[in-house]
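Lecture notes, part 5. Sequence design as translation. It can be helpful to think of inverse folding as translation between two languages: the language of shapes and the language of residues. The source text, in structure tokens, appears below.
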């Protein structure tokens, strides 16, 4: 196993979600983590144009120092031939506070002051979600639901109170997403108790279009599917966006207290997730 924290004890060997031939569970070994990194490379670098360094280009894997400290939710398509690690079609990276302590912090702390939020809530358990990735041919409701079955089972198992992390718009020009970013700033800002601000020097204002000039329907349609999905669950947005030149994205910060998740989604995912998380 990669050096670092072992997959979550008690659920590492379990199915965390299943829809037809799709199964969601945690990565169990190096081969599966490396296969997930290969899927991430195909999407982030080959499809979306992130900048790879020489080692990443040679290995054709998106990997960093946080991977060893994370749990990795994987979605397998068991209808595909070949060994299991070649059937991975989607992945999500989960970093809990134990893993963050080992890694020297959360990944998103390079962009946002997540530490201040955690210090304001010393009794709550935080989980950082990142590196969401699905192969193009599997970008369907079924795959996303399988991923979220897995995430929800993980949240229940670990008694997580708050999910957080960065989500991205493609490109490095905030003004290209002016209406959508402004809509987020006007309508979905986090309450002060859960607000998170972009770091000085990386902060870019999101409020570029006056509230009265925004077409809410148009702005929502212009958002990436991942951000729209978070908003439907009940997520809120931090203060300011950040340009990530390595991944060629404009990032916003997502804050989702578990108690704020809309009841219909809790009901939808809880049936199987409760069984998978036990």
């Amino acid at each position: 196993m990669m050096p670092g924290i072992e997959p979550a004890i008690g659920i590492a060997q379990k199915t965390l979600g299943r829809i037809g031939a799709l199964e969601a569970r945690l990565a169990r070994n190096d081969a599966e983590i490396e296969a997930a990194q290969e899927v991430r490379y195909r999407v982030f670098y080959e499809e979306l144009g992130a900048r790879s360094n020489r080692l990443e280009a040679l290995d054709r894997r998106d990997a960093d120092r946080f991977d060893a400290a994370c749990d990795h939710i994987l979605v397998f398509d068991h209808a595909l031939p070949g060994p299991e690690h070649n059937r991975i079609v989607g992945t999500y990276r989960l970093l809990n506070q134990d893993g963050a302590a080992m890694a020297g912090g959360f990944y998103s702390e390079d962009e946002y002051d997540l530490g201040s939020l955690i210090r304001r809530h010393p009794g709550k358990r935080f989980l950082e979600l990142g590196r969401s990735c699905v192969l193009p041919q599997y970008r369907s409701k079924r795959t996303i639901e399988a991923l979220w079955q897995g995430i929800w089972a993980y949240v229940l198992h670990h008694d997580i109170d708050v999910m957080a992390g960065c989500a991205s718009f493609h490109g490095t020009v905030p003004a290209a997403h002016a209406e959508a970013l402004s809509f987020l700033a006007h309508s979905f800002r986090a309450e002060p108790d859960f607000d998170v601000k972009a770091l000085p020097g990386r902060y870019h204002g999101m409020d570029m279009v006056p509230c009265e000039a925004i077409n809410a329907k148009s702005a929502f349609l212009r958002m990436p599917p991942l951000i729209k999905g978070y908003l439907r669950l009940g997520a809120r947005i931090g203060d300011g966006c950040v340009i990530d030149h390595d991944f060629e994205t404009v990032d916003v910060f997502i804050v989702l207290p578990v108690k704020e998740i809309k009841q219909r989604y809790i009901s939808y995912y809880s049936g199987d997730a409760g069984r998978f998380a036990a």
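The translated text above is only one of many valid answers, since several sequences can fold into similar shapes. The longest helix spans residues 30-47.
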